[in-house]
Structure formats: C-alpha cells, structure tokens
Amino acid sequence: MNHILQELERLYPDARPELTFSNPYEMLVATMLAAQCTDKQVNKVTPELFRRIPDVRSMATWTAEDLHPLIKSCGFKSKAANITAACRMLAEQYGGEVPKTMEALTALPGVGRKTANVVLANAFGVPALAVDTHVFRVAGRLGLATAKDVLHTEEQLMECIPKEDWIAAHHWLIYHGRRVCRARNPACAVCTLAKWCRYYALQSSAS
User: Which one of 9, 100, 125, 176 has the largest count of C-beta atoms within 10 Å of its C-beta?
Assistant: First the structure.
C-alpha cells in the first residue's frame, strides 16, 4: 500500500484538479457540468459561462431554457435545470454561498456524493476522497479497494489511505487512470506500479 502511494506521488507530484475554477461557485458548476463529460470540454465552456453568469445569485435568475444553449456541448438539458435550481436554493437558503458540508451539498439538485466530495476537497480543502470512474477502476485494479460499488470503494480507500493524503490521492489515481491505466488497453508494460498491481498479476498468471 505505502509503495503504491509513494510511487503515485512520485509520478504525479503536481497532480491537481483539471477543471478550471476560481471560487466555490465555479467549482460546483464546473463539476456538475463534468458529469459524463470531459474536463477538457467543460473548460472550453466555462470561461464565457462565468463571464456572463459570475456568481450564484446571477445564476439563480436564469431559467434552464436560457442556460442550456450556453452549456449544451456538455450534456443534456437536465444539467441546466439542476444548476439553476441548485443556485436558487443556494441564494434562498445560504445567502448565495456554497456550503462546506456533505449534507448541505448533497441536498442540492443534481449534486451527488462524488460531486460534493470534489467541491469539498478542491474548493474548501476539506479532506475528502471523490470516487469517479477513473478512481474506481484504478483503485480496483491496484487492489487498493475490492468493493463493487462507488460508495464502498470510497469507504475502503478512506480506511487504507491516510486522511492527509485523501485529496492528493484522488488526483493521483485520476492522473494514472487517464495516462496509463486506461479503461481499454491499460499500458501495463510501462506501468511502474505493475509489481504491486493485482490486475497485472492476474493477467500475467492467466497468460
């Protein structure tokens, strides 16, 4: 375990969020847009989006119908509905501020546990370990987690990774999943984690 974490830190010392944001509002909206969409595509949309709609209170005045044309390249109209509804709720209940608790964030329309963890970690520095598809896949392959679902994978990772490394480990695993341990054709031959990897051991024994 320690060997894996140390190697991930060595490989990706500058790992950080790949979504562009400058405050909690932007982090929340960008993360909601990133569901089933690439960070690269979201980053193409958000500069103009945040120029036109710079804060929670501004977004709260928009309708889903008006917002959707600005974000349609990031997905379905339901995202526009969730973002505008979430911002109305923030304006009415939190004075236009994004809250810093899991309970409050997951009460917002369209915000699940993964999105809330991303916002807590990246916007507020609260120790959290968001499990997206990359984290779920890489953690399972490496043997850091054995759970078959995202929630229990998060729990297992939080148990085996020191709390002070949760935020960084999330980014390390994402970077490794995007660059080496891809969903299709993982680059095991060049992976420096192969010696500790459960997936690689299983593949090697089967061949």
Answer: 176
